[in-house]
User: Fold these one by one.
Assistant:
Number 1:
Amino acid sequence: MACAHRRAGGPLPVVGSAPRAALEYDVVHDGAGTLDVEASIPPGFARPFSVDGPAIPFVRDVAFVEDGRTRAAPRVGGAWDLSSCSAGCRVRYRVALAEACETIGDISTAQAFHGLQEAPPSTWLLAPTDADEATRIAFRVRTPPPLVFVTGVFRSPEGGGVHALTWGDLQTSPYSGFGGVRTLEIPVPGASITLALDGPFDVGDGALAGWVKANAEAVAGWFGRFPVPHALVILVSGGAADIDFGKSLSGGGASVFLRVGARAGRQDLARDWVLAHELVHLGFPAQPRYRDWMEEGLATYVEPLARAKAGLLDDAAVWRGFLTGMHFGLPERGDRGLDRTHTWGRVYWGGALFWLVADLEIRRRTAGARSLRHALAAIVAAGGNNAVRWAAPEACRVGDAATGTTVLAEMFQAWSEGPVDPQLDAVYMYLGVALGDGGEVLLDDRAPGSATRRTLTRAP
Ligand SMILES: [Zn+2]
């Protein structure tokens, strides 16, 4: 199973800064696999323009539009020189999308499936190579029926089918696709999910929609609301019998891509953890790459708890997962803080340990009145979802304010900078959880933390 993210490692942008001048794009899919784009570029962007690196060879015929005529824009290396555009201009270009999908074959840039040509906006929006992070990028896409366009980029409040994000979000812009896919709108508390289904599924579209809705509601239940106002979930049918691949991508929106076996049945859907894991990712602000441990750890920790609270997973399965996984996150000899040691064990399970210990510590200091859920619900309520980037200390500050403690700030500083041994065996003793000789889960109701253990997995 894979789970990964494409994320920028650059400096953190200013949160909540006002949108600047807008670049506007009209995009038309020709029904076969070419995008015809006309961009309106306001004054102040006389500089090189380009797209995501691997997509550069598929951008064609870039030209200025002046008085109804076109004039080729000079190409310099991997970019187009729009320096003559200082007073603003219109630019036309084409993107050979089908060719890009065939040649690149990577969902991060361009990949074709059964009827879907998937490509995030960073592949087909010719944008300044350098700009203010808050520069607004708005686009509208038209497709000839019955083809549709789906995207995880949030809709702009101005309506008219316009989607908008910022330049800073572009390099992690959500999955988007053009083609003959089936779409369903799924309402969840405080949000809607667009489900795009590509390919045959033995289990049926209705069962898939029910599965997505149940998992989205479990995640909404855990965070107090679904963490983003809208998300795109793309399910593509694959050859395996289960869900064997999942990824989320959420700059300026929210999207999840999953490959679901064409022969997967209801049992396979019920057993799956990948969908809930990816949906939990939507509930925390995006972090730079070296801090993946915060996001992966949170998804690893919260996914089984959210499913258990919603009745989708039993307590023993939650603890079996933790008892067989958490120890991978303990620091080994030579390991440094979580910001610096990026092994699989430290990123996924070291991060999960961080959140488990934080949850227990918040409960201890507040005599059970507050928990990690209160902290994370407050972060989401303040707009701290995966569509935005917040510095980690800011997320910790907002979370701590909701619990009246400084647990997250203290732990973040210690765990990010140095190896912390959380005395995992003592944690398990306190909670009263153990694995028996036959691998069975043993729960001890006489343990001092057994009541806490029950509240972790059961609905209040
Ligand atoms: Zn993940």
Number 2:
Amino acid sequence: MNILVTGGCGFIGRWVVKQLAEDHHKIWILDNLSNGRIENIKELQDNYQNITFVGGDIKNHILLQNLFTIDFDICYHLAASINVQDSINNPKMTFDNDIVGTFNVLNQCKIKRTKFVYMSTCMVYSMALSVNGIKESHPTCPSSPYAGAKLAGEQIALSYYHAYGLPVTVLRPFNTYGPYQKKNSEGGVIPIFIKRKLENKPLLIYGNGTQTRDFLYVTDCSDFVVKTGYSNKTNGKIINAGSGTDISIKNLAKRIVDTKDQIKYIPHIHPQSEIQKLLSDNSFAKKVLNWEPHISLKEGIQLTQNWIKENMV
Ligand SMILES: NC(=O)c1ccc[n+]([C@@H]2O[C@H](COP(=O)([O-])OP(=O)(O)OC[C@H]3O[C@@H](n4cnc5c(N)ncnc54)[C@H](O)[C@@H]3O)[C@@H](O)[C@H]2O)c1
């Protein structure tokens, strides 16, 4: 198939492209490199023939029109501003990229009848209340402009399914981690903690560390994303993917370092946008896609640490 991956030079996008390349598709990546790196796909371009990088922005109509002269079978839309604090500081940038940009890509998919896989996030949910985890029917809550933008993108995408019969699927992966994720404030908590440990610096926890997250290893996430594009059963659906287990940030830190002295608690930068408990219920993904995660948190931390050690600058 001909497949477009927006945000394909980013952390998750890079793994999605890898799996698509292993499946022998022709792939185009659209990325403005605002948070991704061309180096993330270098190894893939060296090893696979059919990966074309297009440098550009999803806000650029002309570029999108030209790009969509290619007949894409699937568009995996991952390009987005992803940082919660940035969205609080500068909501316009997040809304422009995550809502307007999504609308632009979706419109081209409508013209060419391209299946649209929209990468939303677990951050759209309000906190989990039970030990059973969050199903797709769980209440949402835009606790930050980032979550609000992602929810808006979901609704716009689903409206194209209902109004135009466009094949659209909305994905809500839980916190994803692994190699190629940034280790600075733009990245995720696991690589940030590992990097600080390797630099002999204390791990910094925002607030009291009782907030929990459900961590999904990146190859499990990319496997989920890719499969949703291949299946017609996902059209018009919202689908979760997580590990099905949550861990408090305090306990995560204790898994990464040996002693409590290596952990420091600092005031939260955005307590008002914190979601206290995030835990997925993956039963729908299992039913509709036969998808389930394979990498445990212990293995995933080890794999991530190995990669960070090899790539410390
Ligand atoms: N990382 C997670 O834990 C997680 C969890 C659930 C959902 N998501 C979603 O998955 C997607 C990918 O996240 P990620 O962690 O890989 O982030 P990332 O920042 O590494 O990837 C996003 C990519 O999009 C590109 N981009 C941003 N704005 C663009 C624009 N206007 N035009 C073209 N390209 C643009 C960036 O350069 C980057 O390469 C995002 O949509 C995010 O909301 C991430």
